[in-house]
Amino acid sequence: GLGLTHRKAENFGEWYSEVVVNAEMIEYYDISGCYILRPWSMAIWEIMQEFFDPEIKKMKIKNCYFPLFVSPGVLQKEKDHVEGFAPEVAWVTKSGESELEIPIAIRPTSETVMYPYYSKWIRGHRDLPLKLNQWCNVVRWEFSNPTPFIRSREFLWQEGHTAFATKEEADAEVLDILELYRRIYEEYLAVPVIKGKKSELEKFAGGLYTTSVEAFIPNTGRGIQGATSHCLGQNFAKMFEINFENEKGEKAMVWQNSWAYSTRTIGVMVMVHGDDKGLVLPPKVASVQVIVIPVPYKDADTQGIFDACSATVNALSEAGIRAESDFRDNYSPGWKYSHWEMKGVPLRIEIGPKDLANKQVRAVRRDNGAKIDIASADLAVEIKKLLDNIQQNLFDIAKQKRDECIQIVHTWDEFVQALNQRKMILAPWCDEEEVEADVKARTKGEMGAAKTLCSPFDQPELPEGTKCFASGKPATKWTYWGRSY
Ligand SMILES: O=C1CCCN[C@@H]1CCCn1cnc2cc(F)c(Cl)cc2c1=O
Ligand SMILES: [Mg+2]
To answer: Would you say residue 1 has pLDDT above 70?
Structure first.
C-alpha cells in the first residue's frame, strides 16, 4: 500500500532510500553503487542546468566534451594528487575476448584529460583566458556506503576548467562561480549553505586553495560539501607546461581554476525537505508544480468537473506554471492525494461538485498542509503567489533548523559535547594542519571523525587572545567543524 514504512526521525537511512524510490526518482540497479535516474529526478537536474548553463555562458565560458577514457601515463602524471585516489580509478582492460595491451582508465575527473591540450592550445596571451566546461559523467569506484545522489560510483556533474594570465582573474572567477553554487542551493533547492575556504588538509591537494558551499543535514548531524570551486594556482600549469608569452614577451605559466557541482545536489534537497509523507519539492525545481485532481461525486456533473480541471491546467500553463491533471479513473482521489504527496508536488488542486458550483478550486499546500479556496477568476495570480510563498517557506524552515544545529564552542570539552549532540560546530582555530589531523584522530569512531567543513568568509569577531579550542594556541580564524558525508 501507499505510505512510507520508515520515519525520518527514527530511521533516516531507510527513510531516505524509501523516499527516493517511492517518489519515482531512483530505481536501484544491479551493480552496487549505481542508480537509475528516473524522469522525476532527471527533471530536477535539467532545471538546475537551465539556470547554470546560461549563467556560465554569460561569463564567456564555453561547453566542450573530452573523452571518457584516460591513458595511464597521463593519469599518473600528477603523482601526489592521484596516488591517494588510485583505489577508486576504474579501468578498461579488455575489448571483446582480447586483453588490451595497455589498460585505459575511466575519468574520475578531467584535469589530466584536458590539460595536455590546454598546453597545446595556449601559446600567447591572446589565447587567454581559456574557459571551458563540460557536462558529463564521472566514475569513482568508492567503497564507503553508497547512497543515491550522495555517493555513487558514477554520477553526473559539470566540471569547469579555466586558465588565465593573472592570479587576480582566477581569484575573481573562483568567487563568481561559488556565488552561482550558492544560488543553486538557496534560490532553487531552498537549502541554506555556508560559503567558505577549505583547510589545507581538506582542500584539493593538486590546487592552491579550495572554496566550497557547505550544507548540513540536521537529522544525521553531518555536514556535506555542496559544491566546490578551486583555484589551482600554477601547479597544473607547471606539470602540464601550460605557458604563454606575456605582453612583455616573457614566458609565463597560466593561473587555473576548476569547479563542479553534481547530482549530489538532488540528494541534499531530498534530505533537507523530505518528511514522513515523502519528498517535498521546492517549486523552483518541481517538474510538476501543481497537480489538478477531479473529485467526482456519484451523480454530480462529472464532465463539468473534468472540464473545469482541464481549464485549470490550461490557465495555469498559460501563466508559465507547470501544471498537470490526474484523470486516471482506476485510482480514487484519496489514493491520488497520497501518491502526489509522496512525489513532493508543491500544490494540489481539488475540484469537486461544490467547487464547481462556487466557481472556485481548493488548493492544498504540500509544505504545511494548508487548504486554501481560490476563486477560479484569480487562479493564476493566486497560485503563483502560493508557489513563491512555498519556496520561501521551505528555505526559511530549513535555515531555522540548520541554525539551531550550529553550536559555538571555545574548549575541547564543549567541542566533544557538541559533536555528540550532532551539531555543526563553529570554533576558534589556530589553522595548523597537524592540529586538524589531531582532532580527526581524537574523534575517530564508528560515526566517523570530525573534520573541518570550511572557514566561513563571513568571520565573526575574533577577540585578541582567543585560544584555539583544540591546541590552546592563539586562534587565527573561526572554522566550522563536524562529522560529514
Ligand atoms: O573538484 C573538482 C572540480 C572539478 C574538476 N576536478 C576538481 C578536483 C577533483 C578532485 N579529485 C576527486 N576525486 C578523484 C578521484 C580519482 F580517482 C582521481 Cl585519479 C582524482 C580525483 C581528484 O582529483
Ligand atoms: Mg572522493
So the answer is: no
> What residues does ligand 1 touch, defined as CB less than 6 Å away?
81-82, 85, 88-89, 108-109, 111, 140, 159, 204, 228, 230, 258-260
Per-residue model confidence as pLDDT tens digits over 331-359: 999 999 999 999 999 999 999 999 999 99
C-alpha cell read off for 234: 600554477
Q: In the beta sheet, which residues pair with residue 135?
A: 158
**Cα(469)–Cα(409) distance, rounded to whole angstroms?**
7
- Please give the radius of gyration of the chain, using alpha carbons only, rounded to the nearest integer: 25
* H-type alpha helices, 28-122: 39-58, 72-75, 79-83, 111-121
Helix/strand/coil percent split, the chain, to 5 = 35, 30, 35
Instruction: Compute the distance from residue 108 Cα to the ligand 1 centre, in Å.
Output: 6
Mutate to test the pocket of ligand 1, among 71, 77, 109 (most ligand atoms within 8 A of CB): 109
In this structure, the residue with its CA closest to atom 9 of ligand 1 is 109
pLDDT reported for residue 260: 99
Q: Per-residue pLDDT tens for 10-52?
A: 999 999 999 999 999 999 999 999 999 999 999 999 999 999 9
> Which is it for the CA torsion 476, 478, 480, 481, positive or negative?
positive
Q: How far is the CA of 1 from the centre of ligand 2 (A)?
A: 38
Distance 469 CA to ligand 2 centre (A): 28
Cell of 52: 547554470
Over residues 132-136, mean pLDDT: 99
Please say if the pLDDT value at position 147 is more than 90: yes
Please report the ipTM that was assigned to this predicted complex. 0.98
- Joined grid coordinates for residue 455: 572557514
What lies within 8 Å, CB to CB, of 81 at 6+ separation is 204, 205, 206
